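Q: Structure tokens for this one, please.
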Amino acid sequence: MAIKHIVLFKLNDEIKDSEIQEKLDETKRLLEVIPGVSDLLIGPNLHPWSEENTYGVCLTLEDKAAYDAYAEHPNHNESIEIFRPYSLELRVLHLEM
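A: Here is the predicted structure, written as tokens:
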């Protein structure tokens, strides 16, 4: 069973707009090389009604074992730290595919 891993987050005002895309690109570079990750999307939330979650990461993992390896992977842990100082809110959702 594949897993769709979705992370939604809202950034505070301490991060400059000019820094956001650079950090999104860095996050993508870290995550896309983790074994078992596919269909990686990362960027701003385009839905006009959602002010709580301004950015998101969405990716597919082959199965639970791939998720477990992803969760422990150093690149995943490094990617978390990129936005941690700027995050007001974080939500994670897993969907079975």
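A few notes: Strands lie at 3-11, 37-44, 55-61, 87-96. The chain has a mean pLDDT of 94.
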